[in-house]
Amino acid sequence: MQLRKNKSVLQDFNEATRHEWLETNGLGGWSGSSIIGCNTRRYHGLLVAAIKPPAERMVMVSKLDETIIINNERFELGTNDYGDNIQPNGNQYLFSFIKNPFPEWIFEVKGIRIKKTITMAHDENTTLIIYHVVKADAGFTMELLPLIAARGYCSLQHAYNNIFWDVQFEEGIFHNQPYDGALDIFISIPGSSYAHNPRWFYKFNYQQEKYRGLDFEEDLFNHGIFNVELKEGDTLGIILSTENPKYKDAYSLFDSEVKRKELLTMGIVNPLLQQLTLAADQFIVKRVVTDNTNGINTQKSLKTVIAGYHWFTDWGRDTMISLPGLCLSTGRYEDAKKIIAAFAKAVSMGMLPNRFPDNNEPPEYNNVDGTLWYFIAIYKYLQATGDEGFILKEILPVAKEIIDWHFRGTRYNIHVDTDGLLFAGEKGQQLTWMDARIGNWVVTPRMGKPVEIQALWYNALKIFEQLLLMNGQEPDADLVSLSAAKAKQSFKEKFWDAVDNYLYDVIDEHGVPDSSMRPNQLFAISLPYAIVEGDHALAVLKTVEQKLYTVVGLRSLSPDDPRYIGTYSGDAFKRDSSYHEGTVWSWLLGPYVEAWMSVKGEMFKNNALKIIEAFEYHLNEACMGSVSEIFDGDEPHTPRGCVAQAWGVAELLRVIQEYKLYS
């Protein structure tokens, strides 16, 4: 598929800055900006390093602005927003942008045509930039200006006097440690000269931060300028890294990444599947942990899933929902196994962590559904691999612990009620995926018995039953089967809204049903063990189609509801208030397609394909080649939230592959 923008878009500043590019390194770090190189977010940077993968990210090198010098005439190729003016406005020299699979730019200026390509070295905090002089009527000088941030990825840098301005420059390699405790910065520009001239550049404006009601001005510092002489046919390979690249070569590192990505897509013919597979790769990363076995600290490397770029780390719920699409649909079975095993070790009181915070903070366990999604991930893994030995030996005991704790009762009043359904919730806590909270105000509390939690609980019981049978524990399996049957019967009695002809969203702590029209009821149909079938399932789907479906996902609340908010915008309070009150979520296309396929079977396959094709245009907007977290509920469904979201990519991949939509 064509992920491309021409010069009419690139030279229109307002339009061009709506589109972004992103390259990642498998550690949680990244390189990314708008497609014209003008940073519009605090998270944008040429080298964003993960200090303790995948956490503690730091924006090290913000930009590397280029200037072409021909006969003492200067042409600045960089683009920066200073609020009251755009200076320089080098996007006027851009001819094209394409992502295939790496972001590539063509600049044209004064008879010179330069191709620029950026990627990251896998498993390194290293960014690679390759320039190729495609055409030049005469030799010229390229001047390179590195702008350094050297700060946490959620903060902003401001001018102060404690920066270390001294640098080492030997054999084309620049080295500086900006301040005590900071990572080192290395910039390798072969054949270059360096002129030391320390200074600050003030008040870069980040328009997306301003739009989000946050601080949006930053100062960046520069130690000096590099110059390199170039002519037609020349190539220049630049390395930006937190490690000394003295014995490394940009071209070799780049070729390794080319081959790695070719292997990821080997045998995939369909262009959309190719792109989604590459997008999926960006979310599977290392988690480095300290193991204290026998009193000796050692570093262990595990696998996990980044929930979204740029600000999420690994979340239990997102990881388990995403695992089938990211790993199993792409044949990455070993990664899936490592993730399942790693989370098994983090179970506490029968619960999976909701998230692993930055800065060595302990895991948080404030969710009810992530643990239940774990059973779905186990089930899908077993289906894909047949790896009974691993599941029965290592995971079945953990599954039993989880089920036992849920019957016994665990954190946040999560327990099986007398009707066999799962109760969850305490005042001031948000435990489902609709988890926005502002101070002590839970925007979408859903305390009691949420509809999708019951569907997940029923599935957890049925999957646990099957594991027990596989392990030769028939009497135990029979007991679990009775519990599942009781839950299903209670669900049928309590959740059908006969007035509106769909499922209640929640039965609250007082036993009062909530008839809010939300997409959560889909999971009663879409999961491996459906808890709603037949005419009721079809009625739910028709209502969801009429009220919630959009081409980019499902609304989180019907527009008919007086609480509906059609635009996700404004400051943090306004955005959090609307997060699940009408905002469209891309990941819900997966369960939507699956629910229809469950009810209609092969008859719906062409319709499912049309749903996917209607979404395809989005991959050429926002973060090009990936899937945005959310969209406005109202047309034109502007992309919002994280520019690249794991479960948005994963769920598209999963339903395409599971139902062989492109076979």
Describe the structure.
By secondary structure, this protein is α+β, with helices and mostly antiparallel strands. It is built from 17 helices and 37 strands. The strands form ten sheets. The chain has a nine-stranded antiparallel beta sheet with strand order 1-9-10-11-12-19-16-15-14. The longest helix has 21 residues, at 388-408. The protein is globular. The two termini are 17 Å apart.
The overall average pLDDT, rounded, is 96
Strand adjacency order, main sheet:
1-9-10-11-12-19-16-15-14
Q: Which residues form runs of ≥5 with pLDDT under 50? A: none
Count the strands? 37
* Distance between the ends: 17 Å
Backbone CA Rg: 26 Å
Fraction of residues in H or I helices:
25-40%
- The SS-based structural class is alpha+beta
